[in-house]
């Protein structure tokens, strides 16, 4: 999923000029946002669309007809960066074609590639009108206005996290009963393979009060499930008055908001799984029994070389404590194979760790050399074909575990949050507490709420159920 480009469809009313823009007297303009990478970027794209709405921008799914195209990029692996350059090439063709008929297309590059390579992008791709780093989204409307005048500062990739959170509009337009809520940015962990500490900057936690305000607003608009986001979300330590709250304290307060029935958070670092957070998993029913806790590798030697600050043993202890607090917790992880110096034995240790934990799902990646990170200079880089082979073996094992986990749910009944229509007629689609997709036959009127479902089967990636009330 991290490798795929996701297109965000927000309020797609662009090509209907009859609909007058609500927030301003400006004519409606078409906005196309292409999102790459993590959920943090998906969230940021939604916020950018919110910021641009008052300027008259409405989402379209047709990049070739857009007045403004935003590529919200991800820098975490090299492939993603290359995809951005090839997408810019495609956009340039559209831009040139529109210019022939006197129309202007503005191309903006946002996200982590913008942060890390802003100047390089402007040099390599003059068709790009502006570059905006993750900390400067609140300035997007102003930058767009400047680009329209083709004067002034076109580059804004500075680190000003406090300003960013403060300046984003608190009014959000949720798209259904689930929403992301950004509570933390950046990371101080400096894993030796990772660009995040350089692209997103130092760890910064958003203040408690503005988070609660935003969550209340979302709940009033029908949001039932919140996913709290941050690169290192369980390191959260936000201020309220003179006090500092942990993630566990924040979760307990969010759980009290009327309408909020489910809470998740992602992504966590194993060494920040504090006792109070583990306890909250046992005590707060709104906290969903699914934890994404990346371990990266099962070899202590490689963990050390990655500067992960935890060992296989401490990771397993944390998982044991989580399972004690919340016996039905499902676990997910990220893995990197082919990190410099990884031997066949190190890789076998990873396979062994996966077998001993039993995951509900996991993302696995081939190590990608990121210039500027300490690991990129390490000797003993693993040959690409060796890493490919390990990745295949790991992914096969994870898939097997994912199917086994899904199978355990067949015959069980639990609440499903219905989020939209299913693919087939008469079907609705929802989410289980363990983040599985669930299809059931049912009326659209159930979308937006939680309803009890009995699971009768599983497909490769989802569950099939029947509504209990309908039995
Ligand atoms: N190479 C491969 N995978 C990486 N990740 C981060 N940096 C790299 C890299 N250089 C993966 C990690 C992380 C996830 C978001 O992306 O597994 O947890
Ligand atoms: Fe990157 Fe490590 Fe921070 Fe995760 S914890 S964002 S992998 S530096």
UniProtKB/TrEMBL annotation:
Keyword S-adenosyl-L-methionine carried by entry: yes
Protein location: Cytoplasm
Cofactor note: Binds 2 [4Fe-4S] clusters. One cluster is coordinated with 3 cysteines and an exchangeable S-adenosyl-L-methionine.
Gene3D superfamilies to which the protein is assigned, alphabetical: Methylthiotransferase, N-terminal domain, tm_1862 like domain
Domain TRAM: 407-469
Cofactor dependency: [4Fe-4S] cluster
Pfam families, sorted: Radical_SAM (PF04055), UPF0004 (PF00919)
Catalyzed chemical reaction(s): N(6)-dimethylallyladenosine(37) in tRNA + (sulfur carrier)-SH + AH2 + 2 S-adenosyl-L-methionine = 2-methylsulfanyl-N(6)-dimethylallyladenosine(37) in tRNA + (sulfur carrier)-H + 5'-deoxyadenosine + L-methionine + A + S-adenosyl-L-homocysteine + 2 H(+)
Record's protein name: tRNA-2-methylthio-N(6)-dimethylallyladenosine synthase
């Amino acid at each position: 999923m991290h490798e795929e480009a996701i297109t965000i469809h927000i309020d797609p009313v662009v090509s209907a000029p009859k609909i007058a823009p609500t927030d301003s007297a400006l004519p409606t303009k078409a906005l196309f946002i292409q999102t790459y990478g993590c959920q943090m970027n998906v969230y940021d794209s939604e916020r950018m669309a919110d910021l641009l709405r008052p300027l008259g921008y409405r989402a379209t799914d047709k990049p070739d007809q857009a007045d403004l195209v935003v590529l919200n990029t991800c820098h975490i692996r090299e492939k993603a960066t290359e995809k951005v350059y090839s997408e810019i090439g495609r956009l340039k063709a559209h831009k040139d074609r529109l210019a022939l008929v006197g129309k202007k297309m503005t191309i903006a590059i946002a996200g982590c590639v913008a942060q890390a390579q802003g100047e390089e992008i402007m040099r390599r791709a003059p068709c790009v009108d502006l570059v905006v780093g993750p900390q400067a989204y609140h300035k997007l409307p102003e930058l767009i206005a400047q680009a329209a005048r083709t004067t002034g500062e076109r580059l804004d990739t500075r680190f000003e996290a406090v300003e960013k959170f403060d300046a984003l509009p608190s009014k959000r337009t949720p798209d259904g009963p689930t929403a992301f809520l950004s509570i933390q940015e950046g990371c101080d962990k400096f894993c030796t393979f990772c660009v995040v500490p350089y692209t997103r900057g130092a760890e910064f936690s958003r203040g408690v009060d503005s988070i609660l305000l935003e969550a209340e607003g979302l709940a009033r608009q029908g949001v039932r499930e919140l996913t709290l986001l941050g690169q290192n979300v369980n390191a959260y330590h936000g201020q309220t008055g003179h006090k500092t709250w942990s993630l566990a304290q924040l979760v307990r307060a969010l759980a009290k908001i009327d309408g909020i029935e489910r809470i998740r958070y992602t992504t966590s670092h194993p060494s920040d799984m504090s006792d109070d957070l583990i306890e909250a998993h046992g005590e707060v029913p709104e906290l969903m029994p699914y934890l994404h806790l990346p371990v990266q590798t099962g070899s202590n030697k490689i963990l050390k070389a990655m500067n992960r600050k935890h060992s296989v043993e401490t990771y397993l202890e944390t998982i044991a404590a989580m399972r004690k607090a919340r016996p039905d917790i499902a676990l997910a992880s990220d893995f990197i194979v082919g990190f410099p110096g990884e031997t066949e034995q190190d890789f076998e240790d990873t396979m062994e760790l996966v077998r001993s934990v039993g995951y509900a799902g996991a993302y696995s990646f081939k190590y990608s050399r990121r210039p500027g990170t300490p690991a990129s200079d390490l000797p003993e880089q693993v040959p690409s074909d060796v890493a490919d082979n390990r990745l295949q073996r790991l992914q096969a094992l994870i898939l097997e575990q994912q199917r086994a986990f899904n199978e355990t749910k067949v015959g069980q009944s639990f609440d499903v949050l219905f989020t939209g229509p299913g693919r087939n007629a008469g079907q609705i689609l929802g989410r289980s507490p363990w983040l599985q997709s669930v299809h059931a036959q049912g009326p659209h009127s159930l979308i937006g709420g939680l309803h009890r479902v009995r699971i009768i089967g599983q497909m490769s990636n989802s569950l099939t159920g029947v509504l209990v009330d309908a039995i």
